[in-house]
Design a protein that fits this description.
The chain has 358 residues and is an alpha+beta fold. The protein contains eight helices and 20 strands. It binds adenosine-5'-triphosphate and magnesium ion (MG).
Length: 358
Amino acid sequence: MSRIVLRNLVKSYPGGDRRATDEISLEVADGEFVVLVGPSGCGKTTLLRMVAGLETPDSGSVHIGDTDVTSLSARDRRVSMVFQSYAIFPHMKVRQNIGFGLMMRKVPRPEIDRRVADAAAMLDLSDYLDRFPSQLSGGQRQRVAVARAIVVDAGVLLMDEPLSNLDALLRLQFRAELKRIVHQIGTTTLYVTHDQAEAMSLGDRVAVMRDGRVAQIGGPLEVYDSPADRFVGSFLGAPPMNFFPALVSDGPALSVGALSIPAPSSLARFAGRTVLVGVRAEKLAVSTDAADGFLPATVEVVEPTGASVLLTVRLGDHELKVQAPPTFDTRPEASVWLRADPSTMRFYDPETSLALTV
Ligand SMILES: Nc1ncnc2c1ncn2[C@@H]1O[C@H](COP(=O)(O)OP(=O)(O)OP(=O)(O)O)[C@@H](O)[C@H]1O
Ligand SMILES: [Mg+2]
């Protein structure tokens, strides 16, 4: 059992203007892969280092399996970590780097050799075992760091931006590879990235962090489809979720300037109030012809991406992103018509930015 349970973890650094982590509670089930994602400085590395035992929390506790490890040293925690700056030893060959943790644990030589060979094969490093890190590309060095972490078979695997030094294509390839490997070894994993696409693709669950707190945790589709607040909707997804204010009127309907959109019936209890509407670019239907229930908008920018066309359009006073089919034929200043299915709209409190239950 290698469940991770974090309770109210608080950490401040001397001279910091706010807490690096502020009462974070989180559970990772045995064998689960949870991704921490959030902007730079939101506390991801700090949280991971507290789980590893490399940073002492001011208050709160860390449990691994059934043990409270809060006061245990890193050595005694059965965790394996890949660091943001991959930290492999320059004076050791790949073989010794990968086997280092096993050697420290006094694992017999033949077993070290076997496990190093297995990990190297998994990470496509078999041909590089006798090279020094300086003779490897950045991506290969990063794979050595991952191999070194998975080879020890610790109960818990912690990874801090392990793909950050790869170029875009390699990153995409290695992401799928890593998912396969982690699934295969079945280790409980806490993984840090600031890349929202990577978070969605890898995580069984995704924890979106902001300013030392977890803004939302849930399955990738859940956090993408139903963001708990405006920050989560803007942070996840490319483009970010569209947000615009609208007045709820009887019917119920939503008035956006002079335009009126049908609203889900459950919104009736907010009649007379202004809400923030959130809708994803791909949920907006777009047409070059006027049709019933469609709203007139003006195209500002047309960006073909191959798989689709990303439009920036003006609807009344608001700028929206719309994802249209790749063959959608339009140009700047053209008129288009938009429609959002009420069931795809999300609603937020304009003051707190928190999701409204409708
Ligand atoms: N050793 C330290 N001393 C003082 N402040 C620190 C230290 N380490 C981190 N911080 C501060 O704590 C906050 C959280 O830092 P942390 O490294 O956890 O962020 P992060 O989410 O990992 O960011 P990034 O995506 O840039 O790696 C930041 O404001 C940072 O400046
Ligand atoms: Mg970090």
